[in-house]
Amino acid sequence: MPAPIRLRELIRTIRTARTQAEEREMIQKECAAIRSSFREEDNTYRCRNVAKLLYMHMLGYPAHFGQLECLKLIASQKFTDKRIGYLGAMLLLDERQDVHLLMTNCIKNDLNHSTQYVQGLSLCTLGCMGSSEMCRDLAGEVEKLLKTSNSYLRKKAALCAVHVIRKVPELMEMFLPATKNLLSEKNHGVLHTSVVLLTEMCERSPDMLSHFRKLVPQLVRILKNLIMSGYSPEHDVSGISDPFLQVRILRLLRILGKGDDDSSEAMNDILAQVATNTETSKNVGNAILYETVLTIMDIKSESGLRVLAINILGRFLLNNDKNIRYVALTSLLKTVQTDHNAVQRHRSTIVDCLKDLDVSIKRRAMELSFALVNGNNIRGMMKELLYFLDSCDPDFKADCASGIFLAAEKYAPSKRWHIDTIMRVLTTAGSYVRDDSVPNLIQLITNSVEMHAYTVQRLYKALLDDISQQPLVQVASWCIGEYGDLLVSGQCEEEEPIQVSEDEVLDVLEGLLVSNLSTPVTRAYSLTAIMKLSTRFSSVNRIKKVVSIYGSSIDVELQQRAVEYNALFKKYDHMRPALLERMPIMEKTASNGPTDIVQTNGETDSTILDTKHLPNITQPASQANDLLDLLGGNDVVPVIQTTVPTKPASAGGELLDLLGDLSLTGGPTPTPAPSVPMSQPSFLLDGLTSQPLFNDIAAVIPPMTAYNKNGLKIEFTFERSNPNPNIAVITIHATNSSEADMTEFVFQAAVPKTFQLQLLSPSSNVVPALNQGSVTQVIRVLNPQKQQLRMRIKLTYTHKGSPVQDLAEVNNFPPQSWQ
């Protein structure tokens, strides 16, 4: 048989291929030749054939048929064969394949080989793909090599020990005696790998962490020598002595100093020295400074040192490198809660980052800007953020508007400023604001009695300028309906009053009813406002005519309102003034969850959404009962939602497809239950506004974790309703520990037919990353028979651009929640 071509020739041939098909043909032809050679047990060219096979593997072609040939090369006595054999084993084998166990004896023999390079090959292979069984069998040999005086072997043995500890943590104590002298080594390679080994042991065992804290002075000494040492060509990188080792030591110091006063005290001086002496003109120095900042922030460092760290991050913000600016903004965002005043000094630089062209930097700068807002700088910061809202991309507008609403609610210097700010947001980005912004602004206006005339005049002017921003139009319609008499009378003292007639006001509202820009909800607001004005204006006949026209509207919601309002004019005219009188001052509801954005959590409170003033946003029965078949049929109660869901209507159908064949009872799939009339669940709202909602029993019901997977954690807290002790009120708290936000978050639930369940609206559909906030949602469960509570939940969200769906069954509710 002729000698096979060399690897270089194969590479040259493959690179001449002009098409993918031509390349595949060459590879298949060469693979056929290699297989023939393997079948003939050709020992002469086995090494060359395996090398070519590895190259094909790197190109993405299958090379699994060469696994056993790699084992034969490893068993060879020639170093060149062993080198290719071990390389092939690392690339083609892993612990999922039983073939790798055949290598154990060869690796053991090579670990005891007389040649250090053969020992090094076997250490690399074990540290790369050794399974837990191999690690248990060979840990003794690795520990022996860790104590050798040969620095070439010690550094490889240290990295191999890291892999062994990851695979078999209980073998950690075996390597403890060998670590005693590792930090005394002069060789930087051994020092580097030793620090990696110590870091791994400290992260995996609290006992090891306590044991190695005594090494802090030695680590500080090594770091000091690195900083103070002169030029060393062997370790110099851009004028800095071994930055890789410095970063590793700083990371280990961070772990050792966290939560320990003595260790933190011992490293304060060296951290200050590193922070002040490191050159920042090159990226190498910035990497060391960033690691120093993280260490200072994590340990119990002095206040002056923390200010120094934040000043370093402030300098990073001025760097031309986008990555460095992003890293600085992210780090400042993490430290702003603990060192608020120090971060405030860099406020102007942070605000300048809002103008950056990079979207990720802009987003981080926006989040940090909102974190810096307080009562002292609210006016200046809002001016900058409103300017940013005007010019930012649509992707930012929703988050920016929500942040401005929250900051204005917390720190508004006056009610007029608060109203002006929110109106500015609605005018600029009305289409992007959250659904709850309309009722929240209406509540704010209602409670600001002295500002009614000013507000209605401003909103009327805004309507004349632009009717495309639907939330603004809805608030303006509501206010004109409530305070139209103040608008016409020109009683505004805050600014020069405008002269408006009743007909002009009605013209504007009628224009909203026929405008193509108006949504059905906006038309409902406008019709209700016109009806309200029938008790404030003298043009009653014109209003009757408008209302009667919409009695035959194709929009069922609008038609129902018009029919009811017509009945008020005819049959109940004597009651009309009382029914349409001005809304009373609304009581502020509690903030829903850590986001602190005012929520009505389902908007069931009659003082927040009065059906005479705001459009009816209750779902039709067919949509509310989309979840009837959630668990398979008539052993399930429908979920009754009080607000329009954040997902499209098809979401219910998706849930049916997914869960239609499941049943909590475990029996055969029964037939679907009949629809429950929407009037039936009135027990859920009875007495909601007349009595305290919860009693003291809430304090004795322990919370529980219902779901914890992929960074998403769902916790349940429990309360019992005062009006009806058979109702358990469950509040879900969804948090996200991953590094990316979870968007389009939807929580759905179903219970057996002996229960009734109601889901109220969530506080948000975005679960912030890194546990920086949570989404809350209230569930009310009626359990008249006091049976053990069981629940099936479905979670839907988008994470890092990929849609995620998951199911879970919750059966471990605390007895106090259902007894």
From TrEMBL:
PROSITE patterns: GAE. It is found in: Cytoplasmic vesicle membrane; Endomembrane system; Golgi apparatus. GO terms for cellular component: AP-1 adaptor complex. Gene3D superfamilies: 2.60.40.1230, Leucine-rich Repeat Variant. Pfam families: Adaptin_N (PF01602), Alpha_adaptinC2 (PF02883). Residues 699-814 form the GAE domain. It is a peripheral membrane protein. One of its GO terms (biological process) is vesicle-mediated transport. Keywords: Cytoplasmic vesicle, Golgi apparatus, Membrane, Protein transport, Transport. SUPFAM superfamilies: ARM repeat, Clathrin adaptor appendage domain. The keyword Protein transport applies. PANTHER family: ADAPTIN, ALPHA/GAMMA/EPSILON. Belongs to the adaptor complexes large subunit family. This is AP-1 complex subunit gamma.
